[in-house]
Amino acid sequence: MLILTTVLTTGALTLTACGSRDDDGGSESGGGGKTTVVIGVDAPLTGDLSALGLGIRNSADLAAKIANKEKLVDGIEFKVEPLDDQAQPSVGQQNASKFIGNKDVVGVVGPLNSNVSQSMQKPFNDAGLTQVSPANTGTELTQGDGWKDGDKKRPFKTFFRTATTDQIQGAFAAKYLYNEAKIKKVYTIDDQKTYGAGLAASFKDTFKKLGGKLVGNDHINPDDRDFNAVTSKIKSTGAEAVYYGGEYPAAAPLSQSLKGAADIPLMGGDGIYSADFIKLNKKSQSDLATSVGKPVEQLDSAKKFISDYKAAGYKDAYEAYGGGTYDATWSIIEAVKIAVEDNDGKMPEGDEGRKAVLEAMDKVKFDGVTGPVSFDEFGDTTNTMMTAYEVEKGAWKPKLSEAYKP
User: Fold this and answer.
1) Which of 167, 178, 235, 282 has the greatest number of C-beta atoms within 10 Å?
2) What angle do CA 387, 388, 394 make, to 5 degrees?
3) In order along the chain (406 residues), what is the average pLDDT of each group of 10 residues?
4) Collapsed DSSP state (helix, strand, coil) of residue 247
5) Cβ neighbours, 10 Å, residue 231
6) Bridge partners (DSSP) listed for residue 401
7) CA dist list (Å): 95 to 139, 147, 196, 386
8) Count of CB atoms within 10 A of residue 282's CB?
């Protein structure tokens, strides 16, 4: 834990030499003659979105510890090194450079935000460094800007994710709101960021196709907290709900203002599916959210993860992306295992190690915390399970889970 504290406090990245061995045993870099393999983690560890980021950091750390405990890869000791991106693209780009600059890092888990990922993808791709996000849902990250017109092209071969796309999430939300909640008139708002704008666009497209009516649309600044002007406008439109593309720090006060003006529910994506949305919002009752996968608490495949996480004593909850992060980290671990097996039981060093891990990602397939884990030709997860939630008595309650195809 001392290393984690140092990273969070100073931002320093203290790594040991990949491929080096400690034949005397007992050192931090992997005792008993083991080779230390480092997996980077990028997430917001401070600031408004830190509740989600800390869950990501801890879940990745747990995966490495379990792999080491189970001696999953003979002769390899896994180590996780986290960096705080503060949910800022510029900081994420700096972190990408730090990970790239140290040849010990064979893969990176994260980030949380799609716009942060956009600043990291090309540097990682140029360096041949594998990136697996448990949370990025922006469709263009894997399928290119032309995906809306059916022109799907993978922009970066190094990018993978265990979260499904906003194309799927937005469409699933529209279907749930129209068919299950019986809401036919919706006002849409987004925060103009990559994630929020893309999610709202997908929602609007499907909601209209289903026969729903969009009675208005607005954009907000995600740093604002006073939304009285926009919610007063919504009241006169006859909207039965608001769909918000964005994250919980702005969604919570937006919902509170909405309840005071129009007394209708707010629905959002996985960016608002956090316990902190409810903590920050005294009027969250009946609000709705979607999130990737099924609730881990309902999955037999997640029982060990939940038990191990509790036993590890992390003070922060694993939150919405815990299971997906564990699987993202484990996918890199499995790729390392393949790379070692294909290289006579040794981890290739430096750039060759990164190249071997990247090539192995296409072969990765295992039963994970969130279910079967593998990646398609775009680097997208093959698991398209989605869940709709509603706030009831101060907690998110799952309402519907299904594997969804738009």
Assistant:
1) 167
2) 120
3) 33 36 37 85 96 97 98 97 98 98 95 96 98 95 91 97 94 97 98 94 96 97 94 95 97 96 96 95 96 92 97 96 97 98 94 97 97 97 95 96 82
4) coil
5) 24
6) 387
7) 23, 28, 23, 31
8) 12
